[in-house]
Specification:
Layout lengths: L6 E7 L6 E11 L7 E5 L5
Antiparallel strand pairs: 1-2, 2-3
Length: 47
């Protein structure tokens, strides 16, 4: 069960759409509608 405030891993696609990278993201909130769409903020480190 997903809830706002959780940190999740998702597959962020690269430009070729074939490969992706697992990235952490913070779930902000569920979007209205019949699909399971969420607003999220991608967590990313600065090098």
């Amino acid at each position: 069960m997903r809830r706002a405030g959780q940190v999740v891993l998702f597959n962020f696609p690269q430009t070729d759409l074939l490969l992706g990278t697992l990235r952490p993201a913070l779930l902000i909130g569920k979007l209205p509608g019949r699909y399971d769409d969420w607003l999220m903020a991608v967590c990313r480190g600065i090098r």
